[in-house]
Amino acid sequence: MKFPLRYLVLLIALFVSVACHSEEAADAPTPVPPTATLRPTRTPKPTAYVVQQPPATLTPIPTMVEEGATAVPTNTPAPTPTSEIITIEGIEQPLYMESACSDRFPCNDDIAAWEARLRVPEGFKGEYFAWMKNEENVERPFQPTTLTFGPDGLLYVAVREGSIYTINPEGEVTLFAEGFTVPTGIAFQPGTNRLYVASRVKDTNVDGESQIAYIENGKIVPIITDLPCCYIGMHAANGIAFGPDGYGYVGVGGRADHGEVLDGTNSQDVLEPYEAAILRFSPDGSEVEVYARGTRNPYDITWSADGQLYATDNGRDGDQSIKEDVNEALHAIVPGGEHGYPYYECPTCFGIPEGIEIIPPVLEFYPHTVPGGIVTYLEDEFPGYYNSMFTVLWSAFPEAERVLLIPPGAESYSTFATGFSSPLDITTGPDGALYIADFFTGIIFRISYEG
Questions:
Q1: Per-residue b/e over 413-422, b at no fewer than 16 CB within 10 Å?
Q2: What's the CA gap between 389 and 391, in Å, rounded?
Q3: pTM of the entire predicted model
Q4: Per 3-state DSSP, what percentage of the chain is helix, strand, and coil (rounded to 5)?
Q5: SS3 of 116, please?
Q6: Among 27, 66, 136, 240, which residue has the least CB neighbours within 10 Å?
Q7: Spacing of C-alpha 155 from chain mean position
């Protein structure tokens, strides 16, 4: 995507300090005790795991159980009847209002002003739940990138600065682990206390590296390394979700905009084995396979109640020779399928090779809005919303800065909530509420149903 100057400034602020930590990434993270021709693919570098090519239908892999441990079955949610939800009328973006801290938004710690900005449907309540305050620099809060609830009922929040925090029901923030480089995906393996983390190892635009690790019993164990990273500071191993088969799935971004070598020549590059793909991995990382290809930058993934995997995706840059804008996307992931990258048709693209069938997205969003986190609603508190999805649009465009509702089947979407600054991830809590991580402000918002 091509971003306006205002958005480029935001992105520079977002990631420039990360680049300064590339060398530091070699140090192990520390938990806080106790708490148009078909392109060949490169041969992967030697690793501790096995590369498997995707069959037409994936064979279930037996659940890996550590010696002496008891296997915990994964419960697959059963679909239940839902009310059809097509649009929600009257959810508009509030006007920007100047404050002492911003020409657009309230000060980050102004709870009343932020809650007054929030727009949610009738019967729902939007509130300011917690703030990722940086005690060393109050004017620059920690910037949350991903969040999930743990089996202990606490909200776990990873921040761009490299740490993971817990937040209790009273909104109190406690450090849990630190030393990562830009963690952008966290998920608990169902039935365990094991927290999986997707983060960067070498945060460089060319030849970067990301990884998957898990935290358990105060130890951090990297299990999948040398994953593609980190084009424009955003494409990497990102959202993680465990599937109904008990295995982990992670979205990995492409190393370029449309498959080009990043030397200014716009020549066609060679695709890496795990680039621009949804990967499926065993919980111990000993087996890794490509589940589907062609996701340019899948920031997050989610499973529906009926076993369909969805991924948000950021569209390529529009070709300025034809004044092109490219929509953002939501994919219904097809095992073994090709979902786009790098096979595009535009004057500077390389075309679609013969024999490659591209699976189109199920939904498209306004250009440059940058869809981020996505979650399937599998709780009972929002009446009629079971198996609907909620996703966030992150960018500074007025068409973004909101939560979208996607009814079951992903045939339409509508605005569900507005009033945010930069919502980057979303999850559901054990209380049935939605929790939204607002990146630039460091605020965690909560949306609950009151009837």
A1: bebbbbbbbb
A2: 7
A3: 0.84
A4: 5, 35, 60
A5: helix
A6: 136
A7: 16
Handedness of CA 403, 291, 15, 222 (dihedral sign): positive
Q: Rounded distance, CA 353 to CA 176, Å?
A: 48
- Record the tokens describing residue 318, joined without a space: 């529009």
The CA-atom distances, in angstroms, between 426 and each of 51, 154, 321 are 31, 15, 36
The CATH number of 5-37+75-449 is: 2.120.10.30
Instruction: Give tens-digit pLDDT for 315-347.
Output: 999 988 899 999 999 999 999 999 999 999 999
CA distance readout (Å), 382 to 25, 84, 440: 42, 13, 28
Query: Is residue 444 a contact partner of residue 166, using CB atoms and an 8 Å limit?
Result: no
Q: CB-based burial of residue 27 (10 Å sphere; 0-12 exposed, 13-18 middle, 19+ buried)?
A: exposed
- Are 223 and 237 spatial neighbours (Cβ–Cβ below 8 Å)? no
For the chain, residues with pLDDT lower than 50 are 1-28, 30-87
Dihedral in degrees, nearest 10, Cα atoms 369, 280, 412, 318: 30
Q: Collapsing DSSP states into helix, strand and coil, what is residue 260?
A: strand
